[in-house]
Design brief:
single chain, elongated
């Protein structure tokens, strides 16, 4: 069972998006469009839709792998998903998420894991989350060290502050960050620390719009928001959320632009109905054989007649 491979459709006038291009977009005030993708078909959609950045997020744990959180997804799984996504892209910048447990132990582990996403999966950059409890007294030096070490190895890094899903246990669940002055200061401090470490861009997730707008005054690198209001340089949504494919928890910041799962169910149900009613396949869905060849075949395999396939293969 197979279908022929299809090459991604690329508008000839579009040039590949680079880290430098994103910086230029920020300076020009040109909004940056980012979506997640986890496989070849979704990458083709992102390519055809002319988005700027594709993130192979660890949200794949929930949306395509069936885990209850992002924590269980492995680096091997992320490499496989990112490699499939790479094959569907030509233009957008491809960023791979470093999953929980793949970079926290040491700078050496962080470099090794990031290198796999670049060499094996073909990512252009990696993303890491700022570890710890926003608004608390957690020391962030280790997170900054991980970012610096990966960047020093020649790999671009995108940071992530605010609601960091890999730290939800420490954060007290999936809730907005920066809703008190103390928490807001921590979000700002995290963002500035990652910027100073050399991150080429930073994701602000589930941060009050007014807080994000205030912090933006000090941000020199592109900031991509998800639930952080309109003041950021760009926006990102999860592919399955914005298209209505995933029916899990829907965050407040999600807007659905289609109801693809509903259409998929309707399509599969229509197919199942036609099979059960003997309406599919119809004659136009089959292949033909020359009548003389068919008659010869039927003569060879007629019931009760012995035959040896070797006699007919020479």
């Amino acid at each position: 069972m197979s279908t022929p491979p299809r090459k991604p459709e690329v508008a000839p006038e579009r040039r590949p998006v680079t880290v430098r291009r994103l910086a230029e977009m920020k300076q020009a005030g040109e909004p940056i469009v980012m979506v997640t993708a986890y496989d070849y078909p979704s990458a083709q959609v992102a390519e055809a839709a002319a988005v700027d950045v594709v993130l192979v997020g660890d949200s794949a744990a929930n949306t395509v792998l069936g885990y209850e959180s992002t924590i269980p997804v492995s680096l091997d799984e992320m490499v496989m998903l990112a490699a499939a996504t790479r094959r569907g892209l030509s233009t957008p910048l491809l960023v791979g998420d470093l999953p929980f447990g793949s970079y926290q132990a040491s700078d050496r582990q962080a470099i090794k894991s990031a290198t796999r996403l670049i060499k094996e999966a073909g990512c252009d950059a990696v993303k890491i989350e700022m570890a710890g409890v926003s608004g608390g007294l957690a020391d962030k030096r280790e997170s900054i060290s991980r970012a610096r070490s990966i960047i020093a190895a020649g790999i671009p890094v995108m940071g992530h502050v605010g609601l960091t899903p890999q730290s939800t246990a420490a954060l007290g669940g999936y809730r907005a960050q920066g809703r008190t002055a103390r928490e807001a200061v921590q979000v700002a401090d995290d963002a500035l620390a990652l910027q100073d470490a050399g991150c080429f861009a930073i994701v602000f997730e589930a941060v009050p719009s007014a807080v994000a707008e205030t912090v933006m005054e000090r941000m020199q690198v592109p900031v991509i928001g998800i639930g952080a209001g309109p003041a950021t340089d760009g926006q990102v949504l999860v592919f399955h959320d914005l298209l209505g494919i995933y029916e899990g928890h829907q965050a407040r910041f999600v807007k659905r632009y289609a109801e693809i799962k509903r259409a998929m169910v309707e399509g599969v149900r229509a197919y199942a109905d036609e099979v059960r009613q003997h309406r599919f396949p119809a004659p136009e869905h089959g292949y033909s054989i020359d009548p003389d060849e068919l008659e010869r075949f039927r003569e060879i395999v007629s019931p009760g007649k012995a035959w040896d396939v070797a006699d007919f293969m020479s």
